[in-house]
Amino acid sequence: METGSKGGRVAEIPPMEIQNFLKNVNFPIKKDDLIKQARNTGAIADALMENLGMLPDKEYANADEIIKELERV
Predict the structure, then answer these.
(1) What residues have CB less than 8 Å from 47, skipping those under 6 apart?
(2) Helix/strand/coil for 13
(3) Greatest alpha-carbon span in the chain
C-alpha cells in the first residue's frame, strides 16, 4: 500500500497530456470554466476529467496552481 500520498490519481495521467491541455487555457480561470473548456476540447482523458472535477472550487491564476492541486487529489 502506498503511503505519504493523499491521492495519486494524477500519476495515471501522462504529464504531457496535462501540460498540453493547460497551455491552451486562459488564466485566471475558475474551476467550472476549466472543466467546461476541457469538455469542449473533447480529447481529454477520463482520468484527467475526473481529477479536474476533484479540484477545489476556486479561481486559478496559472497552470502551476492547477498542477499542484492535481498532485493533492
Answers:
(1) 9, 12, 13
(2) coil
(3) 38
DSSP 8: -
Q: Quick check: helix, strand or coil at residue 60?
A: strand
> Which is nearest to 50 in space by CA: 70, 28, 30, 66?
70
What pLDDT sits at residue 73?
82
Domain ranges of the chain: 25-72
15-22 vs 63-72: helix crossing angle, rounded to 10: 140
Measure the CA dihedral 25/27/30/31, to 10°.
Answer: 40
Is pTM, for the whole model, over 0.70? yes
Q: State which residues of the chain have pLDDT below 50.
A: 1-8, 11
